[in-house]
Write a structure and sequence with these properties.
The complex is a heterodimer of chains A (114) and B (115).
Chain A (H helix, E strand, L loop, with lengths): L4 E3 L2 E4 L5 E6 L6 E7 L6 E7 L2 E4 L8 E4 L6 E5 L8 E8 L8 E2 L3 E5 L1
Parallel strand pairs in A: 2-11
Antiparallel strand pairs in A: 1-3, 3-8, 4-5, 4-9, 5-6, 7-8, 9-10, 9-11
Chain B lengths: L2 E3 L4 E5 L4 E3 L2 E3 L5 E8 L6 E7 L6 E3 L2 E6 L4 E6 L8 E9 L6 E3 L3 E6 L1
Parallel strand pairs in B: 2-12
Antiparallel strand pairs in B: 1-4, 3-9, 5-6, 5-10, 7-8, 8-9, 10-11, 10-12
The chains are: A mainly beta (114), B mainly beta (115).
């Protein structure tokens, strides 16, 4: 079974530029999550989708971050414009549904904002 | 509000030693779920265990064991006879019973096992 795929693995941009990350969850998984992990900290949930609907985006900085999952499969997370404090690893995860099932994580995208 | 505290930022042991990683949580819910994840240098979080709040039985899986004590709000993780491959960051996490609720992670414990 293929795992959660993410691209790119690394990205370096200047502040005020835009960037987008892509995630392909495990086939058949209805729930998709985006996390931000700042160096030395635990992951923090940014947004959670159930199919193509948003379940929880309460911790997403909506003035600069956006995410979509149009067909209920792949998802894109965008930052526009980026700030220095956005430097982090962005992790995508998926689970079968909204319950207590385990979440499977992708390898993450390491973003450096200069 | 929910909170997970992993007081040990870094632990260093020599191979074959036993090591315990501490996790203390706070929640007002009576039903919840606790998790442990491993994050090796490659960066991908790997699921280790899920425990329901109403099941306080300890669990053993090979060299790994977990001790859940509701009375002290702790869910500690022990690795017996540690190996170099156990070197990673370990995260404890908490999730409410409510469908769609988020995972709240602790800050993680960096475990280094030296040969």
């Amino acid at each position: 079974e293929a795992g959660v795929a993410q691209s790119p693995r690394y990205k370096i941009i200047e502040k005020r530029q835009s960037v987008a990350f892509w995630c392909n969850p495990i086939s058949g998984h209805a729930t998709l999550y985006w996390y931000q992990q700042i160096l030395g900290q635990g992951p923090k949930l940014l947004i959670q989708f159930q199919n193509n609907g948003v379940v929880d985006d309460s911790q997403l900085p909506k003035d600069r971050f956006s995410a979509e999952r149009l067909k209920g499969v792949d998802s894109t997370l965008k930052i526009q414009p980026a700030k220095l404090e956005d430097s982090a690893v962005y992790l995508c995860a998926s689970s079968q549904d909204l319950g207590y099932n385990e979440q499977f994580f992708g390898p993450g995208t390491r973003l450096t904002v200069l | 509000a929910q909170k997970v505290t992993q007081a040990q930022t870094e632990i260093s042991v020599v191979e074959k030693e036993d090591v315990t990683l501490d996790c203390v949580y706070e929640t007002r819910d009576t039903t919840y779920y606790l998790f442990w994840y491993k994050q090796p240098p490659s960066g991908e979080l790997v699921f280790l265990i899920r425990r329901n709040s109403f099941d306080e039985q300890n669990e053993i899986s090979g060299r790994y064991s977990w001790n859940f004590q509701k009375s002290t709000s702790s869910f500690n993780f022990t690795i017996t006879a540690s190996q170099v491959v156990d070197s990673a960051v370990y995260f404890c996490a908490l999730k409410r019973e409510t469908s769609g609720s988020r995972l709240t992670f602790g800050e993680g414990t960096q475990l280094t096992v030296n040969p």
